[in-house]
Write a structure and sequence with these properties.
This protein is of the alpha+beta class. The protein has one domain: Alpha-Beta Plaits. Helices cover 40% and strands 29% of the residues. A hairpin with a 2-residue loop joins strand 2 and strand 3. The mean pLDDT is 82.
């Protein structure tokens, strides 16, 4: 099992209906290629964790990196693992939109979202960089 985290910035023209359309296509592709993971979206920023066989994850990340609907694609962390963190979803997704929700509400949503994953039950070097980046995106300084 191979996992990779990246972040990027959506182009202004990449609007929410297009993002939901992309998600539909992605879920189909991911299911066919054994890829699971998590995608968060807030203030035009994406954070995604991909997991699956190394060649499939790398092939998908190369495709994502070349997608002109976003820019500033930055690989954050990658690792080999024995278990998936998001084994129940072809791609878990949460849209925080542009709203300025309270910190308590945002963290409650994150807790709820991740309680259905293996994030809290499986040791992974990806958890800290993932949550650190989630915090950075949701609570910019």
């Amino acid at each position: 099992m191979y996992s990779l985290i990246y972040r990027s910035v959506a182009n202004d023209s990449f609007d929410l209906p297009q993002i939901y359309s992309m998600l539909g296509d992605s879920n189909e592709y991911n299911a066919e290629h054994g890829i699971t993971g998590c995608l968060l979206y807030h203030r035009n920023q994406f954070l995604q964790l991909l997991e699956g066989e190394k060649n499939e994850v790398q092939k998908l990340f190369n495709k994502i990196s070349k997608d002109d609907r976003h820019h500033e694609v930055q690989e954050i962390e990658k690792e080999y693992s024995t278990k998936r963190l998001f084994n129940k979803w072809s791609m878990a997704f949460y849209d925080y939109g542009q709203n300025e929700l309270s910190a308590q509400l945002k963290m409650g949503q994150i807790d709820s979202f991740f309680n259905t994953s293996n994030v809290f039950h499986h040791k992974s070097d990806l958890v800290l960089p993932f949550f650190s980046t989630v915090r950075e995106i949701l609570f910019p300084r």
